[in-house]
Amino acid sequence: MSRTFCITVAILLCGVSHACARLVFPPGSDMGYIVSDDPETKFDETNGVNDLDIDEQVAERLLQRGEREAIDVVKTALLKTIEDRSRLQRIENINNYQQERAAAGDATDGKWLGRWFPHPPQFNAQTRHDGAPDDLPENMKDDKHGVAMGIPHVKCDNGKVNLTVDWNESPINYTCFNPKKHHLPVLEDLESRLQCVDIPKNYIPQHYCMNREITYNTTLPVYGPHRPLWPTYGEYVFVPPQRWLHSVEHGAVVLLYHPCAEPVEVQRLRIVLTKCFRKHVITPYTLLTTDRPMALVAWGCSLEMATVNDEEVRSFIKKHALKGPEGHMAKDGSYKKFLINKAEYPPGAKQDKNICPMDQS
Ligand SMILES: *[C@@H]1O[C@H](CO)[C@@H](O)[C@H](O)[C@H]1NC(C)=O
Ligand SMILES: *[C@@H]1O[C@H](CO)[C@@H](O)[C@H](O)[C@H]1NC(C)=O
Ligand SMILES: *[C@@H]1O[C@H](CO)[C@@H](O)[C@H](O)[C@H]1NC(C)=O
């Protein structure tokens, strides 16, 4: 199916021009970019693209939005690439040019000829505060994230107002309602699934106030825009992804478990995590699969589990904790809604960088 899709797109774009381009699209992400296959090729009005190579995974994801729409989206993005190239070439101010390239995340070799898809992470000052309330005070604006982080404000996010935008507080999200067989069977033989996405190095997640929804296009997001206030580290009755993804940006490890997951397994996972690392968030999450009803999430990576293997969990934590653009920030968060247990340093650790201290003795 996706193969057909590739061909369709290629044919559609054939008439347009003559060079080759690639849509680079990190798995699990809706943000990608289009680059020329040949780094020397410059797009302009007369020299465009005649073949667009999209990998199957990407094609599948696009197809979920509907083939017609997907093709239009790709075509539009591609035509914009061509436009941007010719516009960039006309830009006399070299500073602007370099800024745009840097924002695009690939300034190192000076040859980036692509375009973010469907939108750049941080492209120009005008769009940075997009969607923030008009009356947001100046001190709440931030050129990096759009809205400043960690400052509670009633007009934006104070951890109290409009929380139902992210979660309607339904018990369905933290209770196992299956009356017949209370807990999900533990599939001992099913291997864990580790998935990592390649996050462009200059990507900076945006902060959005409670006046707008944030959706993720994936059931297990491992990075993305989020709320300005991040949760106090610890265990919750429930905390929505719009909050814990901020913790992930600060290098946290998030433990998600399906409310019907076998409690003995969840407890094992909880013990390993809390003995390894203070910067954690623990919450139920119904959007996990029922065959792998537990997961750890850290910046760019997730580990979905059917059963808990202590060694595998520790190695995931050691490898992926403290990653993310602000991975070493120690400051605790101020969002506390439905907090059950505040996290402590594990026995034997005085700093976060001392991960799994029990292993070292
Ligand atoms: C709450 O659970 C329902 C049912 O699984 C799900 O559709 C919804 O997305 C969940 N909400 C959150 C915030 O996880
Ligand atoms: C809360 O929601 C109302 C109604 O949608 C909206 O007018 C208001 O701006 C929101 N407040 C914040 C802080 O997002
Ligand atoms: C999800 O997809 C829609 C449509 O392409 C896009 O507007 C939105 O920004 C995406 N959300 C995220 C978090 O990437």
TrEMBL record:
Keywords: Signal. One of its GO terms (cellular component) is cytoplasm. Residues 1-21 form the signal peptide. InterPro entries: DUF3105. It comes from the Eukaryota. Pfam families: DUF3105. This is Uncharacterized protein. It comes from Halocaridina rubra (Hawaiian red shrimp). The lineage of its organism: Eukaryota, Metazoa, Ecdysozoa, Arthropoda, Crustacea.
